[in-house]
Amino acid sequence: MGLSGHCLCGQVKYTVDSPPFTVAYDHCDDCQRQTGSTYSLVAVVPKDKLTISGPTKSWAGVGSPARPSTVSSAASAAPPMYHDPEAAPPNHRPQGRYPLR
Fold first, then answer.
1. In the beta sheet, which residues pair with residue 53?
2. In terms of domain of life, where is this protein from (predicted)?
3. Rounded distance, CA 19 to CA 36, Å?
4. How far apart (Å, rounded) are the C-alpha atoms in residues 45 and 61?
5. Which of 9, 63, 80, 83 has its CA 20 to 30 A from that of 32?
6. What predicted TM-score, i.e. pTM, was given to this entire model?
């Protein structure tokens, strides 16, 4: 089972040619701010199986617990689509901030 979806504006699309390692609720402060809720639903997928197409922008963030993370969204200033935390193993990337919620 793979995943596919797109950002809110539809300019950025993603496909994952593998089932997720895990799907979980993230209760960190950033996720609460991004969703306006108490959590965000995220999927952790193999980085080498994730394909993202379309214009994106990225910026350096700080994840929990205070570790560097690259945050990316559609270039049209939509909410973040995925994070690439430095603390994650090399073949993992949490993604799916709002395509899965």
1. 13
2. Eukaryota
3. 28
4. 20
5. 9
6. 0.70
Distance of alpha carbon 29 from alpha carbon 2, whole angstroms: 29
pLDDT single digits (tens) 10-46: 889 999 999 988 888 988 777 787 778 898 888 888 8
Q: What share of the chain is helix, strand, coil (3-state, %, to 5)?
A: 10, 50, 40
Within 10 Å of residue 32's Cβ, how many Cβ atoms?
14
Instruction: State the average pLDDT over residues 79-100.
Output: 61
Alpha helix (H) residue ranges in the chain = 29-35
Domains of the chain: 3-95 (2.170.150.70)
